[in-house]
Give the backbone structure.
Amino acid sequence: MVNKEKTNPSISVLGSGWLGLSLVDEMVTKGFIVKGSTTSESKLKLIEKIGAKPFVIDIDNLITTNIRNFLETEILIVNITSKSVEGFQNLINFINNSPVEKVIFVSSTSVYPFTNNEVTEKSSLKECALATIESLFQSSTHFKTTVLRFSGLYNEQRHPGNFMKKGRIIQNPDGYVNLIHKGDCIGIILEVLKQECWGEVFNGCSNNHPKRKDFYIEQTKLIGRDSPIFNYSKPTQFKIIDNSKLKRVLNYSFKHDL
């Protein structure tokens, strides 16, 4: 019997921004056939330069030929900031009539309300557009969706100390920080692909949760900024994102921590 070597699937990445472009670059390096989208024609050459096939896709203005060609793929990674429920419903209608079998939907831990406690993937969600959009993907019977709820993204270029602009008043100083490094976001997506872990929901957040006050004083000091101003006048509201399911199911070890 001849053993056929398993080939990498074709993948389309909807949204080649700060996270998406780095993801596309990494997947091309690993031998995937990748299509990458942008809403700006000026970025087409940038996507093409790293070895992916570029497309202009705007979910609020889907051009039939463009989106159908973009969705000629096995796996779709949705990584855009739009909260247009109508736009996503329109997109899903096209996905339902495409060869796409699996979807990774990059969501956010902002779907969880403040609970002053830990939150897991089983915790209740806020009534918000993003939670509705998650549900639209999960309820389709035409493809399987894994939802990745990432916390606030950072890396060395997007330093947390720069989040605190001069004069900005920081709420909930006694609350806790929920962040994740861009490199870990890419690592988690690659593990979902590698392990073919579909139909799941995972919280993506660093292991450590320092207090907001302590963390942002330290981070602004590291880059030579003045310490931010904190508002102690309101009751503290916070949530601590539990990442234990992701580490258990994917056997993922975070490469970066706070």
Q: What stands out?
A: Residues 182-195 form the longest helix (14 residues). The two ends are 50 Å apart (CA to CA). The chain has a mean pLDDT of 94.
